[in-house]
Amino acid sequence: MTVVRKEIVLVGAPVDEGAGQRGCVMGPDAYRTAGLKGMLEALGHSVADHGNVSPAQIGNLRSPNPVLKNYGAYVAWTRALHVKAADLGASQAFPIYLGGDHAMAAGSVSGQAKAAAAQGRPLFVLWLDAHSDFHTFDSTASGNLHGTPLAFLCGLPGFDDLLGTPLQHTLKPENVEILGARSIDPEERDLLRSHGVRVSDMRRIDEEGITPILEPFLERVQASNGLLHVSLDVDFLDPEIAPAVGTTVPGGASFREAHLVMEMLHDSGLVTSLDLVELNPFLDERGRTARLMVDLAGSLFGRRIFDRPTQSF
Predict the structure, then answer these.
(1) Which residues contact 187 (CB under 8 A, 6 or more apart)?
(2) Which are the catalytic amino acids?
């Protein structure tokens, strides 16, 4: 398939407060060091790096649950990223949000959803993750807020402070596809089932393969004239090939399974925005995870097998 040239904007989101283990603050610069911009330009795309977003200035907020960690920082990052994403979503640019832990998606995806609604089009989300991140402020036991953004985005109650007002443009739960899950808490499982979120765990991938799962989802996006946001968590991948993440869960996607997902997404022509999240360079091995994530982004943007140089890790 011919590569469609895109105007790509890189946005750093050094969100570090949502995860239990610190280090994701270094993620955006690790992607830059691993050559993301140059790789995309070599494919013929134009790339502008907008640098890193800064958290919004907020007053003192009372946490709705004392177990929540770094609640004020979560609010500040969500508001700043929401504004940035809504602005980019209204433009012709293809934004890539460089995380940062997965708490950042509360802002990036909500902003993209606002822009999609202004165009009269539904936003679909492909959540590539070992976890569902579907806890509410009441259901989380750990208090780690990177486990809550998808519940917020789907309009579950209790999140009014994140944007200062109730979220106007929520995701329809049936427009969310979680792929690669293998660690879901019982409370999340009940919420996912009651709200109708689609979850394909690694057992289903083992039994059926990637293609029969992903193709129907992409067909629904196309039939609805939808926009597609992809949120790629490092822990979607097996930790044997991607160790730089604080939430390792064995049995993740293989190198080829992950590239197949990205190649299918490229071929569909439906993806309009992307998160790269949970990269913790402090836990990496000589940059191998950062380079793999950049390579996967290359597949999403049209890099073919013949284009790939031999790599040594």
Answers:
(1) 135, 139
(2) 102, 129, 131, 133, 146, 233, 235, 278
Question: How do residues 124-142 score in pLDDT, each as one tens digit?
Answer: 999 999 999 999 999 999 9
Which pair of tokens denotes residue 183?
């660690």
DSSP 234-290: GGGB-TTT----SS--SS-B-HHHHHHHHHHHHHHT-EEEEEEE---GGG-STTHHH
d(CA 136, CA 257): 31
Q: For 141-162, write each residue's pLDDT tens digit.
A: 999 999 999 999 999 999 988 9
Angle at 23 between CA 20 and CA 28, to 5 degrees: 125
The chain-wide mean pLDDT, for the chain, equals 95
Strand partners, 230: 126, 274
Instruction: Please report, for residues 141, 235, 278, the alpha-carbon distance to residue 270 in angstroms, rounded to integers and kept in the order given.
Output: 36, 24, 24
CB 18 within 8 A of CB 105: no
Predicted structure pTM score: 0.96
Helices 71-89 and 105-118 pack at an angle, to 10 degrees, of: 30
Superfamily of domain 7-307: Ureohydrolase domain (3.40.800.10)
Beta strands across the sheet bearing 176-181: 46-52, 7-13, 94-99, 271-277, 227-233, 123-128, 176-181, 198-201
Q: What does the pLDDT read at residue 147?
A: 97
Q: Choose among 140, 132, 122, 83: nearest CA to 233.
A: 132
What CA–CA distance (Å, rounded) separates 247 from 13?
19
Amino acid (one-letter) located at 251: G
Supply the pLDDT for residue 60: 86
Q: How far apart are CA 48 and CA 15, in angstroms?
A: 21
Give, as one character, the DSSP assignment of residue 21: S
pLDDT level of residue 313 (50, 70, 90 thresholds): very low
Confidence band of 59 (pLDDT split at 50, 70, 90):
confident
Residue 71: both structure tokens together:
């609640």
Domain ranges of the chain: 7-307
